[in-house]
Amino acid sequence: MSQNTLNLSQKKAILLLEDGSRFEGIAIGKIGTVGAEICFNTGMTGYQEIYTDPSYYGQIVVNTTSHIGNYGVEDSEQESDAPKITGLVVNTFSEDFSRNTGHGSLQDYLEKNGIVGVSELDTRLLVRQIRDKGAMNAIISSEDLSEDELQRRLAEVPSMDGLELSSFVSTKEPYFVGEENSPYKVAVLDLGVKTSILTHLASRGAYLKVFNAKTSFEEMKEWNPDGYFLSNGPGDPSAMDYAVKTAKEIIAEDKPLFGICLGHQIISLACGISTFKMHNGHRGLNHPVKNLISGKSEVTSQNHGFAVNREDVENSDLVELTHVNLNDHTCAGIQVKGKKSFSVQYHPESSPGPHDSRYLFDQFIDLIKS
Description:
alpha/beta; Rossmann fold; 2 domains; about 25% helix
């Protein structure tokens, strides 16, 4: 355990929200000051998967489950090479862990990766405030800064509305996943892809080439893939004309195309469907979705602050609604009419769970086979 960890109980931290709300707690992670949009995740487990999901880039995450850090961290539970969150807010933080397979404490992990956080806050109260007033910018500081300085730094945090972030988390150079002699080749447009998505595709016989978010369709096509995948990722999809153009060209080619979360929004925009910023987003492991084609319901993992306009989908001649979120009836999935293209607004790979929606990977491979 680091010396910083031993002294954490003596270090105060401040959380300041855009609406003027101020919370005091105890510092965790790195000592410092960070600002970003604040959001909450309702998952009862899987905190390391949350922190390393590139879709959270540029956000402060509030964990609603009360105990964080108690099972440490493990290398196999990374969804990317390092945490992508900007900051962390928790209720009870454990500096010790009790899992035999754990590789270290969460405190050392956060400190090593430069993540600033605050604990010992009433996260129930905080989440109720975000639910009522909506996602907003916030700042965490464990430094000795004046109130005026905190307010100044908070005012400098950009709005998530209109913010393009995929280019910050996408791979710089193409790389391969899977076995080269696999029966299918899938080109992945990395908008902020999670490792477990690539694992699921590779386990179903796909050899993957992962491309930078701004790669042109022509460059991807040169690899001669059997299908295309548009990944999850952070930021506002309406600020990503480059990806929308690529999606339009893939759909016109009529090769199998599968999109998840941000990829779903990009495919929708390519078909003339608008997107919007949600009041507080969907983030957690317990969102019910109905598959309108099969009639079955699924418990899903979700992480998005933007959504596809359901009214536009229902009035479109190009796409049809396939999945609906049963909590608020927003669009949770579409397919392009007459094309081999479909997408969903949730995470079928859902690591650590639930696993109700993993059939969607099989559906994509079946499209490639057909």
